[in-house]
Design a protein that fits this description.
It is built from 16 helices and 15 strands. It is an alpha+beta fold. Strands 1, 2, 3, 4, 10, 11, 12, 13, 14 and 15 form a ten-stranded antiparallel sheet that branches. The protein has a three-stranded antiparallel sheet with strand order 5-9-6. The chain has a two-stranded antiparallel ribbon with strand order 7-8. The longest helix has 20 residues. The radius of gyration is 21 Å and the shape is globular. Keywords: Signal. This is Beta-lactamase. It holds the Pfam family Beta-lactamase.
Length: about 425
């Protein structure tokens, strides 16, 4: 197991105070470009949280609960914790490192919305650009609804389509191009802009919009406007980009001897804006810093306020896991991000999953502290660690949301022989779809 906890650089004026309700987040989009001052987490609480996180990851490793995992905590624009466990490839025993590239699945959506925001600022398009004005093929079953649908509607998951429209056909190797042109066969569940319906196919129409308005491919625009300026040196799109990486995490299944790697599945790479990004932990640390306001030269405070402002209510998201049922008081979808009222604090969050990979990212804007986790196996057990970290950072009562503190393994796979781990360097939703 590898853990590296870097020096804590916490401001002298640390302290927790009550945050404004999530309902105020929408109003922030129109505020000044000046980034708000971070309140910070008390230094001792941060120290205790990182020590506890290391212990939880030790337990995760001891139980062989993942094939491999990479995680980091970022505070006040600094990486304060960086850890890896397990293997990028259990067959060759290649370890996960901070440079190992993972599939991000639906964490990709925030890159699409960030690029859109940059292009909006450059005058290439508008959040309110009508899809029918730039995409001749775009149709919905209701012609009037199609005429009103905007860029904001597809990126805010409020186009009115049923949840995960055509994801099953995408997994059956039907092309994105065909599915995007068959949206007019689907009965809408509500009028455009009126309800939440999580999409991958419809969301990826932003790639066509970008090409129509810039004359350049979507992935090249992300590379030029996001990856390169943020120093995300190993970030890429597609299976070819993944497998060209010097170190990349193979997807794994549990087996009698631990974990068995298998070939990455192509389906969700065909919807690049929704699920096509590959990135390492080093890349995602820079992404977190930028999303928390640390790179205003790339993502301005005004743009971040727009990206993180709630667009549509998502009450169903408050009940999909025990920690959500206990901690969330409100839930919305913004532009490529989920916005949670987490015990009175705003949590910006997203998760992703494709077969053999899972990812999570979240941050507390008021305190400018966040974390990212990526692992290359399907077990959801590590997902409980994220709320455990945020509970600790906020001084909330401790709950073992991951079930990691009990002695019993969560599944048979965790008791398999041949457990993979590395020594410490220093102390310190479709079933296979993307969500």
């Amino acid at each position: 197991m590898t853990f590296r906890t870097l020096p804590l650089l916490i401001a002298a004026t640390l302290g927790l105070a009550s945050t404004s309700p999530m309902a105020r987040a929408a109003a922030q989009a129109g505020e000044s470009n000046a980034a708000p001052a971070a309140q910070g987490v008390p230094a001792e609480r941060m120290k205790d949280t990182l020590a506890a996180y290391q212990q939880w990851l030790d337990r995760l490793d001891q139980r062989n609960a993942v094939a491999g995992l990479a995680t980091a905590v970022v505070a006040d624009n600094k990486v304060v914790f960086e850890g890896t466990i397990g293997y990028a490839d259990a067959a060759t025993r290649e370890p996960v490192t901070p440079e190992t590239v993972f599939r991000l699945a639906s964490l990709s959506k925030a890159f699409a919305t960030a690029l859109t925001g940059v292009l909006v600022n450059d005058g290439k398009l508008s959040w309110d650009t009508k899809l029918v004005a730039v995409l001749p093929f775009f149709r919905l079953k209701n012609d009037s609804a199609a005429e009103h649908a905007t860029v904001r509607d597809i990126l805010g998951q409020r186009l009115g389509l049923p949840k995960n429209t055509y994801d099953n056909m995408l997994e059956e190797n039907v092309s994105y191009e065909e599915l995007a042109r068959r949206l007019d066969e689907v009965t809408l569940t509500c009028n455009v802009g009126q309800c939440y319906g999580y999409q991958n196919i419809a969301f990826s129409l932003i790639g066509d919009v970008v090409y129509a308005q810039t004359g350049d491919f979507f992935t090249r625009q992300v590379d030029k406007n996001i990856f390169f300026p943020l120093g995300m040196k190993t970030a890429s799109y597609g299976r070819e980009g993944l497998e060209a990486s010097k170190s990349w995490a193979r997807p794994h299944r549990p087996s009698g001897n631990g974990w068995t790697p298998f070939e990455p599945k192509e389906a969700y790479y065909r919807v690049a804006p929704a699920a096509g990004v590959n990135a390492s932990l080093k890349d995602m640390e820079q992404w977190l810093i930028a999303q928390m306001g640390g790179r205003p030269d790339v993502l301005s405070p005004a743009l971040l306020a727009t990206l993180h402002a709630p667009e549509v209510s998502t009450p169903i998201e408050m009940h999909s896991a025990p920690w959500r049922r206990a901690r969330l008081e409100d839930a919305s979808y913004a532009l490529g991000w989920r916005v949670f009222d987490y015990e009175g604090e705003t949590l910006i969050f997203h998760a992703g999953a494709v077969e053999g990979y899972r990812t999570m990212i979240g941050f507390l804007p008021k305190y400018r502290v966040g974390m990212v986790m990526m692992w290359n196996s399907a077990d959801p057990l590590p997902a409980g660690l994220l709320p455990m970290v945020f509970d600790s950072l906020l001084g909330l009562p401790h709950v073992d949301w991951a079930g990691i503190e009990s002695n019993a393994p969560a599944t048979a796979a965790h008791t398999a022989k041949g457990k993979t781990h590395r020594k410490s360097k220093s102390a310190a939703t479709a079933s296979n779809g993307t969500n």
